[in-house]
Amino acid sequence: MKKTSVLQNKINNLIDSNPAHVLNYELDGDLSAEREIQLAITEKTEDRSPCLLVDANFCTRGMRKDIIEVTDNHLSPYRMTMNDLLEQVEQEITQDFESKYTERQQKNEKNRIDKINAIKDKYTAEYDHSFAKSSAEEAELRYDEMNKNENGRPPNHMRSWVYWPIMLLIGLLESFVNYQTFISQYASLALAVSATILIAFCLAVSSHRIGKIFKQSLALFGPDIERRKKWYEVWNALFYLLLVVVAIVVVTVLRHYALMNELADQAGSLLLLEEDVATTPSMEVIFSFIGLNTIALGVGMAVSMLAHDKKPDYSEAMIIMLKTRKTILKLDSKMNKEIAQVQALFDKSEEENKNVRQAEKNKMLLNKQERERLCHHRNRVLTEVEEKERRVLEEYQNNLVQHAQKSNANLVFQTHSGNRLSIEEYASLGSLNQEAVNRNPPSRYLQSV
Fold this sequence. Notes:
mainly alpha; 12 helices; rod-shaped
């Protein structure tokens, strides 16, 4: 930017100047033409008439020395400065900023790819990312195959944070039925609460396992299942069934004794009033108590059957798939965070690169405008200088012809090709040159740039 600013200042300073305005020819009116005529007469020989040599442009030595050379010397600094500035501007214009932009872009892209690959290699080494990914792919394939075999049916699956609170709620409701029994049998509150929780836990776990076995009975006891595995599931079911039966029997017996104690207490009080009372609880009360515990067990089994799929491998495949997917997402989130930082730096660098490219493009357009300004100013100045020079030359030529005619020395003008022109013939060249100038604007200096 600093270089461009200095260049623009030089351009502005040059354009503010105009050599045509300060171009002066130190001619002594028509004395210069008269001296040239006298010199030609003085130098004549006996066998030749006085002669003035003219060049291809019919200019005499005096014209070249006092006018043309003065003009050339006056314009020389301007033309050198102009050519130098045009060369500098052209260099700025022809700079290949597109290739520089492409080179910077390729360099940034290479740095981005290298950094991303380094991050991926780091996570592969530190977190065994590739193994986790292969495990996730295997779990996906296994689940997709099972899902295809089930015609797209998703497995029955209830999330643990939904399923187990429901089972605990069932156990909690069931504990309200049994708590009164234990608190009446045990003087210790902690012992009564512990026994209540233990029975509730047994009913909840048993209903979970028994309901799951019933739902998956076709898969667990199918013809293609090994006999050893079948007996394992049978004994498993019997164990939990026995556990729940024992729990209900124990609670029922304790409830029976609790009711007998209550009735005995009531009987002792009512005997004083001489009324008949029962000393044993009725079977309806016992069976209703058993029924409440059985209902709690049945509700738990129903929830368990709804929460599990009839094919245990199908639900398990989905759970493994979700877990591996979660692991991959966790690893990928950390890796992607670092990759995003690299990408952000790359995007910032690319934006800066585009801004530099646009700035260089704007600079090129500005330099083209400056080149047009310089060329326009140069053509205008050189045209004005040549017009001024032509007028002075015509005036000098007229004075030269007039003094030649007054001299009566039979003066001739000899061209560079050896032709001799009389004064009248030389005078007629002025009008011919004027016609040529009118047809073709002055170009001596313009052609030389």
